[in-house]
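Lab notebook: predicted structure, single chain.

Context: the supervisor wants predicted structures on file for every construct in the current expression panel, including those that have not yet been purified. This is the next one on the list. No modifications to the sequence; it matches the entry in the shared construct table.
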Amino acid sequence: MKTKNKTIIFCGIKTEIIKSRRSTISLSLNSNGTATLKAPLFVSYNVISDFLNSRKKWLLTKTEAILSNTEKYALKNNGLLLLYGNEISLKTSQSKVYFNCKENSLYVPFLSLNAKDKVIDFYKNELKNYILPKAEFFAEKMNLNLKNITVTKAKTRWGSCSATNNISFSFRLLMCKKEVIDYVLIHELCHFLHKDHSRNFWQEVEKYNPNFKQNREWLKAHFYIMDIL
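Prediction complete. Output recorded below exactly as produced.
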């Protein structure tokens, strides 16, 4: 697909303009506070400027939300993180990372040089423990041959499914609500049957996750999670 890119600063926000063979203009905000505008090749930059100005209030509001949330959730003593969509407190431990259910607190060895890596490993293991039995359950219901499942540090995708039906998930998915995690899992399993996002694909998703639209909207509203940790 032929594309033409340009980067501008709009209202202090780095905005990448991507012109390609498409029919509509769209604007999205990335988890790092930058924006992406996609437009047809034939659309002039004057039209693009008018479109950006019409979305100025939305863009500034969303950017402020991202910055405030990424500052709110920080890996520090007495800080906050998210677990299954709920806020948890961060406290200091001596050597390892562990979660105290009664205190709703994650204990972290902040003095350790690799404290962040230990927290990420904790999230990876917890997500595996949650998602593997769920994957087996839904794969059986959908009559699918489940293959490899991996948890990665991906920051641009919640999950992905390869051409050979190997699926992976970002450890940050553990910060989402359980019903949202289930939706992402079902979404990727449905790609075993449909490699696109056609009507048939979404019908398959809805069959096993009737509230998929609400879950998808939740992910859009909380995409700043991708910039946590």
